[in-house]
Amino acid sequence: MKRILLSALFILAMGHFLAAQEVAYEEYDLNNGLHVILHQDNTAPVVTTSVMYHVGSKDEDPQKTGFAHFFEHLLFEGTQNIPKGEWDKIVTSNGGRGNANTFLDRTYYYETFPSNSLEIGLWLESERMMHPIIGQVGVDTQKEVVQEERRLRVDNSPYGAFFEQMLKNLYTKHPYRWGVIGSLDHLASATLDDFKNFNKTFYVPNNAVLVVAGDIDINKTKKLVADYFGPIPRGADVQRKNIEDTPITNTIQATYHDPNIQIPAIFLAYRTPGQAKRDAYVINMISTYLSDGESSKLYKKLVDEEKKALQIFSFPIDAEDYGAYLVGGLPVGDNTIQDIKDGIDAEILKIQTDLISEKDYQKLQNKFENNFVSANSSVQGIANSLAENYMLRDNTDLINTEIDIYRSITREEIREVAKKYLKVNQRVELEYLPEQKDAN
Length: 440
Fold this sequence. Notes:
single chain; five-stranded mixed beta sheet
């Protein structure tokens, strides 16, 4: 009886805790088209200022790839009012930290400061948007930086090229088919005008969302936002092409030889719906069930029990137009990549044939509840979620309601979605092999 009572109290407490996680926010547009989202949380004296631009690698010219990622670096070079090399000094001298990242659909810049430095964050991001210096010195400097990053992360890193190799086989028409870091040859041959035109096209207020989250006063912050961002001119509307890729109806076999590895790997990739679609949420649950962590089905079977795999890895790719589910592994001992593939297929067949157990279903629900709470546990995480939900899912309030989608997914739905998307004839099979040595 005591255990039942304690369990009931725990469930009740968790219900109150989750309810308390609701994120209040206010959103509106400036006259120049900049979308603004403000979240006030005065529990700690910190504030995050972030800007997400609706531009990623998919927005590039196929003959000029790598521009979005390049601009992630270039726009730290300085502005008309911030000398070259001073950006990071300004951030750290005011007790802040910041960074940026780029993916297929968006580029994201953010700073987190003590709340009394809010105005510094707004000034920095307005400078980046209004007064960037796109000059030859900065372009040449960042070309070297990006070259070194590619060498470090892709060319000289074990298994570093697998993501690019997967994308080029998974998509044939859609611009997701090239990697985010792009082509160094394209960057090397690009002119200064190419970079200026890219900036003029995409880094405009009507192609961005500004999020300010943390210890703020809403009315004062609105005044500051208007002062710093209101004068920035609206850009031309961004023209996007709606490119649908050819459905995969026969297994795509691909091979890549990596000079940096000694152990082969198998990667399987399935094309899935864009991240705003309900089926994409179901795929996320399937990915977690099959291959997320040491308690997942594939890890327990292939690594712990059968000892066929040295490692199992997987992740869903959440993107705006299409998604993907990637899963693979490294064989151990005398086992082969075919043994790994057979083991993965056997577990996928189970989930397509039988309902997962009620125990596993509840475990999944608990994990997604925990992830939901964790994602909203800091103002920096809240700022990112608000920006992505608005820009890429067209629903800012998912920051409060997304967990309801996961709660509503049934075991039957998991089985049906697995049947629909995880078919052998609808995937890429990438054999990722050590480089062949010259017999001579």
